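Title: Request for sanity check on TRAP transporter large permease protein prediction

Description:
We are preparing a figure and want to confirm that the structure record we downloaded matches what your pipeline produces today. Could someone re-run it with the sequence below and paste the raw structure tokens into this thread? We only need the token string, no images.
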Amino acid sequence: MTLFGIAAFFLLMIAGSPIWAAMLVSGGIILLLDIGMPVQAVVSQLFIAIDSWLLLAVPFFLLAGNLMTDMGLAGRLFRFIENLLGHLRGGLPATGVVTCAIFGALSGSSTATVVAVGSMLLPYMMRAGYDRKDALGVIAVSGTLGQMIPPSIYMILFAAIAQMDVSRLFLAGVIPGLVITVLLVLTAIALSWFGKQELRARASAGDVWHSFVAALPALAMPAIVLGGIYAGLFTPTEAAAVAVAYVLVMSAIFERRNFTLRILTRSAEAAVVTTTIIFVILGGATVFANALTFANIPQSFTLFMTSLPVSEHLTMLMILLIFIVLGTVLDPVPILYITIPIVFPVVQAIGYSPTHFAILTIACMMIAQVTPPVGMSLFALSGYFNVSIATVMRGALPYFFTLLLALGVLWWAPWLSTVFE
């Protein structure tokens, strides 16, 4: 019955079933018909999956990111970075990378980041002579930086699954996030170096200064949120609520024209929709993951992996390859909830650093977001700008290989992830 349940999962996926339904049905088959669990116990797992204080941070960070975009603070951030870098060769795509990195630290949401930054950056790049696909490509990949640079939704989910301290993961993601940002900026400059795009006039020192002052409310938010966490003033979940309150206060002061009930409602609705999608997937994934656990699949996998005559680094490389392959057919959220209960015991058994493993996992999830045919960032840009997935992917391809290179660097240099431990 376990094999039948797993087969049902793949059949439902091939048939186009929603991922949460495929996991719920296949997990239910195993738990009900193989394990003999009561129906009520199976259903209760859907609620247990989201009954977590830590997971409350997800809707709050999503709402904070939406409010930053809809009420105008994100625009202030973009104008400052554009004044700082826009005149350089490759300055506009580099502006997109840096803006995505900072905005990711404000919202933790890749979807919110690619839409917000894309709507601001695309017109500038088109007018400067960049191809549409190139502009969309750099945004699609750079938007994933929000999952490595804290606060990160995927780090919150990973911490909830592995029972780790999320503030520890947030701190571990800072240097890897900066490394990936630098590599993406260098890629943008290299791709633009021999191009014939129009160079923008250098902004005056006064313009740079005034745009910096205008962007201070947005730039200060990561310092307040993360500083409050590490100073012990509030927990990560409370920090997410503080982020919402901070954006509301700053918007009421500096963006009065956009501080309306209509915009507030629109931002809240978008956060509710995204949170609902995530939590429904969490419910189905939890049922499926628990079914695999009861069927002793994680235990068998751990025994097999630890019996292989290879080093712990090669074992980790094989796990990362599994993540990348799964990223071609699954969204990062179900990948995390299906695989982490299986592979995390292996990581512990071989003595590998859980923190380093978490950072490598997040890097793989970033790659999954821009891997066709189910890359979330590709779909977000394709739908918002009404272009094909293939167009976005062609522009994203050079930056996609940069993400793979970054994953290799992080795997080869574990101290980048563990320097603060």
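Thanks, this matches our download. The chain has a mean pLDDT of 85.
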